Amino acid sequence: MWDTRFDERDVKEIRTKTTTYLGVGAIAKIGDIAADLKARGIDSILCVTGGHSYKLTGAWDYVTAACAKHGIRISLYDKVTPNPTTDSIDEAAALGRSADAKAVLCIGGGSPIDAGKSAAIILANPDKTAEELYTFAFTPTKAVPIVVVNLTHGTGSEVNRFAVASITKHNHKPAIAYDCLYPLFSIDDPGLMIKLSPKQTRYVSIDSVNHVIEAATAVTANPLSILLAGETIRLVAEYLPKALANPEDLKARYCLSYASMIAGTAFDNGLLHFTHALEHPLSGIKPELAHGLGLSMILPAIIEECYPACSATLGTILRPLTPDLKGTPDEAHKAARGVETWLADMGVPQKLEDEGFTENDIPRLCELTRTTPSLGLLLSVAPVPATPERIEKIYRRSLKKMDA
């Protein structure tokens, strides 16, 4: 396979709707990106990031040096938390507006990227708020240019048109997707990811796996989303254990970064359905819940429900995790248990009860799947009908470990 022969230090330019620089040392390309922005007349940018990783990884040093060289002023918003809120997006956009920022640079994983992409829309639509954006009170057609320095191998947001944020007062966590959200440039530098904690290393790659399971099985799936799904799962199955065993294994980080990038492209094509629609209420209620952990706890039950309708596809793409699948409808429970076992082997055995959810939470979770903006669209493309009974069944089946 290509990954056994490829030099992870050979930075490559990969074009989707975003130009992405992938490889160890790709962060140095921020100099070329800054030159491009200046040539477009951009002399002030808003940088949206979290509190620490942008400095700890060394990314900030490259960014400040490149912007200083090309005469670009930076307004720094470094208050993004996991599961970012519409309030923080408005706060970031206000900072950018006060500095006349003409572009947004996102540094971090999914949360800073989603917050920054959303702020780019608000900057281009100054009479609107982030809550209006995430309640679909308007349909944006423009955003200021977006640049991403990605610090995790899981989000996929650096190459697609999606973003997510929480509307705190409603416990709602909608997703948006607009063409104006495609980043202009992105950087995927595995060298910036070696400081990811073991938990985050697990969670972000599990996010990639969920992206492609959904993208390959949605009614909107296409040959490309299915092709990318198989390669994503192969890479995660092989290289996640290596990254956990040796966090500084750059080959492993490279392959997981590539897997994340193509997973982002896969769901840009095939869309998402049950797992993300049912996870968003979990982290809507418990904002401290890591997204990848929430996904992992409900994935096996969702596979069991969907498998009979798309057994040939799931039987093929899941083989790196559950090798003896035949791809026949009768093995739904076997496939679900196999994935649950793999997740536990990767160090993520938790189920909903382990994270404090009980039977009493299920009615509220089910209600949020119905009332949270955008989740109905995700559920509408699931491979089996997303009935209230099925959604409740999935949550209940996810409370505890499945029976053998």
From TrEMBL:
Keywords: Oxidoreductase. InterPro entries: ADH_Fe/GldA, ADH_Fe_C, AdhA-like, Alcohol_dehydrogenase_Fe. Residues 205-398 form the Fe-containing alcohol dehydrogenase-like C-terminal domain. Residues 19-190 form the Alcohol dehydrogenase iron-type/glycerol dehydrogenase GldA domain. Pfam families: ADH_Fe_C (PF25137), Fe-ADH (PF00465). SUPFAM superfamilies: Dehydroquinate synthase-like. GO terms for molecular function: alcohol dehydrogenase (NAD+) activity; metal ion binding. Belongs to the iron-containing alcohol dehydrogenase family. PANTHER family: ALCOHOL DEHYDROGENASE (PTHR11496), ALCOHOL DEHYDROGENASE 4 (PTHR11496:SF102). This is Alcohol dehydrogenase. The lineage of its organism: Bacteria, Pseudomonadati, Thermodesulfobacteriota, Desulfovibrionia, Desulfovibrionales.
